[in-house]
Each structure stands twice: as structure tokens, then as C-alpha cells.
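Ex. 9. Protein: DUF868 family protein.
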Amino acid sequence: MRDKFSCFSENSINVSNASCSSYSNNTCISPNVVSPSIQNSISSVYKLVLSTLKHLLITVTWCKNHSNQGLSISFGDEDPSTVPSFRLNTNSRFFRKKKGSKMLDFEDFKVTVLWDLSNAKYETGPEPVDAFYVVIVVDSEIGLILGDSETVTKKMKDSVPMAKISLLSRREHCSGNTVYYNTKAQFCDSGNFHDVLIKCSVENEGFNNKSSPVLSVNIDKKNAIRVKRLQWNFRGNQTIFVDGLLVDLLWDVHDWFFNPQASGYAVFMFRTRSGLDSRLWLEEKHFQKDKDRVEFSLLIYACKSS
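Predicted C-alpha cells for DUF868 family protein:
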């Protein structure tokens, strides 16, 4: 992601481009919000620190499309397709083993995955919201607990030590014929969950009553940023404060306007940084970072379908 945003400054970038003259209100932004965008996949990356001080990254991905719905878990920081991983197809027509356990090896780690999705409840996205659990045990220590099965987790906590776990990043893919996306984010392990709303709309401006796309990002129903004339300010960044933390908010909606026939993805990124550090996070590569400092990033990939 550093390369993606390496050209950003502390303010949004105004770019003059001849191709912009072909912009029309119907190119990528619908003037009316009809229905929210739908989550297609959610990937969360966790950092696990065992009592032996060994570190392990765990990536949990929930996905859903018109034909499949499933869960995959990968370990380490390599390409998930090249390392051992755990996969389940939770589609009701094909998924048979909704409860069970599986043991696998990754490098010098002994991993056990336990799950129960028998009564899992879902909303519109791929991630269950209630009545399920997924537990990952690494070298006889509980590394990660997802879900709400109090009976199982309490029993395991009483008999199995807990490793230290931190959420490093969460990546969400969404799509829809409108640009209206709502999600929740916890920007630090001890912080509260916040409602995050990203909305693009067409508004009239000035005395000539000319329409122009506007980007707004709200956190807990309070406006965090508002970007007018989005077709010109299609990339930018701004610093906001959440739970006393500095959070860099970056956006790139270039493809919505200038490359709609390709992926058509816009990218929004929220990333925390130390309150003692005034540098934008992407500038920190020239400085020694605190290895014990845990930072969190939320990336949202929004596909505007026709």
C-alpha cells in the first residue's frame, strides 16, 4: 500500500487532466442513494505473541459471492496460496462439516483449529455475527477466539493459557450500484467500536447550479471529511482524531472516473499512528519504528458496478 499512496501529500491533490472533460454525473456516482453496498470479503490480520516470545501472523478471511461462501485461515506473511491454510466452504448446499477440529503444522508451530458454525447467523455480509465460534490454538496456547460461544471459550480459558493477540489490519471488499458503505472499526485493542460511513453523491454547487460529485466520510454520525469536486480531488489524505489517536485517512477514487472498464475499485485507508509522531505514516520508512508499537489499518476496496 505504500506504493499506492506514495504520491500523497498532507492535502488532497488537484489534478488537471484532459480526460476529465468527458465527466458526466452518471459516469460513476449516482445522484440518489438507493441501497448500501454489499460486503464481498473481509480479511483480518492478527499478530500472535506466544509465552515463548515467538511471533506468528494469522489471516482470517470470510468471503461470499453468488455461488460460494466460506472461511479461510492462513499463517505467516507469505502469499496464502503458497503456505498451508485452513479452508471451509460454508455454502449450505455443499458444507457438511459445520462443527469440528483440524490439526496442521506451519513451520515449527503446531496449530489446531476448532469451529462451530452449525447455528451461525449472518446479516448481508460473509462474516457471521452471532451463534458461532472459531478458536485457533498454537503450541498449546489459545491464539485467537472469534465468536460468542461462552461455554467452549470459558472452558478452554480455564485450562489453556492465552497468548497475546493484536489486530493489525482489516481489509474489506464491497460492491454495489451505489456508493454508500457502512462498517464498524476498532482503531485500537482497548478502544470502542465505531460506525464508519462512506458516501458519494452528486450535489449542486454555486450559482450556476452545476452538479458535482462529493465524498463524505462519517464516524459515529459525525462528519470526518467532506471532499467536493471529487473528479478533481480524486486522491488525497487528511488526519483525524479517534479515541485520542491520530488516524490518517487516505482515499483514491481515480478508477471510478478514469478507468471504470477495469477493476473500477476505489480505495479508502484508515491507519493509526503515534500521537507523538507528526509524520504521515508513509514517510516513516526513513525512520526506525518502535517494534513494540501496534498500529492498525482499515482498508476498504469499493467497486462501483453499473
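Check your answer against this statement. Residues 1-27, 283-291 have pLDDT under 50 and may be disordered.
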